[in-house]
């Protein structure tokens, strides 16, 4: 029991000096019953009634201590009020957490619904833009005969530095976020063809160790600005919005500095601007099932196989959407069969999974294949086509024929595209070209 003041008018909870040993033990028992039988989770009214009943027993036993008990009862009410307030704050915090989490999930679902529908593409030839070749990459070219259609069209991406304004960031996974940017309404269109990408420019940060980044030689240390390339998954020409899926490489024990560009993007706030240049890209979709890679033209004849790792799916997403949902009268009786092989670390990292699942269920000419390094939920292993790294057996199974309909397709009628981490694309290339002896193969 707490110590009390020696003042004669002391109204502290218990004055141990004035209570006999027997009465002190009895009071201690009553208080212990209050503590044991009145947990915090009880309804406040019932808890207060319980306090009153217990104290009444003691007061009836010895009326001389009524004044002391009245003060104790008052402190009980104060304690009860404090508990009620604390529980209320905790309840509001938990409610707010679930509300915000639900809103984030709902926002992701809304975006997935938007992405899954037919995109309002710019004119293919208009979007390819006019660019000059560079040593490292080739900007979008336009060799279309109907170039006169583009006269008067003002394109945002014109090969010069422009500014995108951040509208919103939506969390997709622990390491991946959707960045939604806007460009000015004064432009008629973005000017970015399917499979094309944009260069984002940012300040060159110094590593924690001088002249090194992530404990390796920093080859960019003498540059004032750096760039990284990102491919949008959705372009909203009406609202002038561009949606990107970007992985954030945060600093950790292995990579002490993180990603030079992604950590800058993560710190952006709505209405912040970032410098961009485009269009860029060595792969260019020309329409009518034709792709150009560098100076060579490839025709998508019967089977298109796309092999992606992680965010390497972004160059393929708009192409998949276009081929599945855009009218192509000349190909109605002979559809293009699409096999999308998607590799990730685990099932939680499969980006836009609901959309690929929907496409697989809706279209007989689309087959999605999931390969994950490890399955976090052992009860769902059956949902994935491969547990472990990509292997020769898996590639042979889904590249040599359209497995969904068990259709054998000739090698010359199959085109394979690959984009992802260098170790993955190197392995895929060795299997496709050396083991399967297939020549129509492009690595991004």
UniProtKB/TrEMBL annotation:
Keyword annotations of the record: FAD, Flavoprotein, Membrane, NAD, Oxidoreductase, Transmembrane, Transmembrane helix
InterPro entries the UniProt entry points to: CBR-like, Cbr1-like_FAD-bd_dom, FAD-bd_FR_type, Flavoprot_Pyr_Nucl_cyt_Rdtase, FNR_nucleotide-bd, OxRdtase_FAD/NAD-bd, Riboflavin_synthase-like_b-brl
Comp. bias regions, Basic and acidic residues: 134-147
Enzyme Commission number: 1.6.2.2
MF (Gene Ontology): cytochrome-b5 reductase activity, acting on NADH
Keyword Phosphoprotein: no
A Pfam entry, by short name: NAD_binding_1
Cofactor names: FAD
Chain positions recorded as FAD binding sites: 228, 230, 245, 260-262, 314
Gene3D superfamilies membership: Nucleotide-binding domain of ferredoxin-NADP reductase (FNR) module (3.40.50.80), Translation factors (2.40.30.10)
Annotated segments matching region Disordered: 125-147
Annotated TM spans: 76-100
Enzyme class name: oxidoreductase
Domain called FAD-binding FR-type: residue spans: 159-286
UniProt cross-references to PANTHER family, sorted A to Z: NADH-CYTOCHROME B5 REDUCTASE (PTHR19370), NADH-CYTOCHROME B5 REDUCTASE-LIKE (PTHR19370:SF184)
Family: Belongs to the flavoprotein pyridine nucleotide cytochrome reductase family.
Protein name from the UniProt record: cytochrome-b5 reductase
Native source species: Plasmodium ovale curtisi
């Amino acid at each position: 029991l707490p110590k009390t003041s020696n003042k004669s008018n002391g109204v502290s909870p218990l004055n141990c000096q004035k209570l006999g040993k027997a009465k002190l033990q009895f009071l201690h028992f009553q208080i212990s019953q209050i503590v044991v039988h009145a947990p915090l989770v009880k309804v406040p009214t019932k808890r207060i009634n319980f306090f009153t009943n217990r104290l009444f027993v003691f007061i009836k036993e010895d009326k001389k201590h009524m004044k002391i008990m009245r003060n104790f009862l008052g402190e009980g009410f104060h304690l009860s009020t404090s508990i009620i307030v604390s529980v209320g704050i905790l309840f509001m915090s938990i409610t707010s957490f679930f509300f915000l989490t639900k809103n984030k999930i709902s926002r992701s679902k809304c975006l997935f619904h938007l992405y899954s529908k037919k995109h309002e593409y710019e004119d293919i030839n208009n979007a390819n833009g006019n660019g000059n070749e560079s040593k490292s990459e080739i900007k979008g070219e336009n060799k279309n005969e109907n170039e006169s259609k583009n006269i008067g069209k003002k394109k945002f991406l014109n090969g010069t530095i422009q500014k995108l304004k951040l509208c919103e960031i939506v969390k997709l996974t622990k390491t991946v976020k959707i960045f939604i940017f806007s460009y000015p309404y004064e432009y008629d269109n973005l000017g970015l063809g399917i499979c094309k990408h944009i260069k984002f420019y940012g300040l060159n940060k110094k590593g924690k160790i001088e002249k090194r980044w992530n404990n390796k030689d920093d080859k960019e240390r003498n540059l004032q600005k750096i760039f990284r390339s990102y491919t949008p998954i959705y372009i909203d020409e009406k609202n002038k919005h561009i949606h990107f899926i970007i992985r954030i490489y945060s600093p950790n024990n292995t990579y002490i500095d993180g990603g030079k560009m992604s950590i800058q993007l993560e710190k952006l706030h709505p209405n912040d601007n970032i410098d961009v240049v485009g269009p860029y890209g060595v792969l260019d979709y020309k329409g009518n099932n034709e792709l150009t890679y560098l100076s060579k033209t490839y025709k998508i004849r019967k089977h298109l196989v796309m092999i992606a790792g992680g965010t390497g799916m972004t160059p393929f997403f708009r192409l998949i959407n276009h081929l599945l949902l855009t009218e192509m009268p000349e190909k109605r009786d002979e559809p293009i069969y699409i096999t999308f092989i998607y590799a990730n670390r685990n099932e939680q990292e499969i980006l836009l999974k609901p959309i690929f699942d929907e496409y697989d269920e809706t279209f007989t000419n689309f087959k999605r294949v999931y390969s994950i390094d490890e399955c976090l939920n052992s009860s769902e292993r059956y949902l994935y086509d491969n547990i472990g790294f990509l292997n020769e057996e898996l590639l042979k199974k889904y590249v040599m024929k359209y497995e969904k309909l068990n259709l054998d397709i000739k090698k010359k009628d199959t085109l394979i595209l690959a984009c992802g981490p260098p170790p993955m694309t190197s392995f895929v290339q060795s299997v496709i070209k050396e083991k399967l002896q297939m020549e129509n193969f492009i690595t991004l």
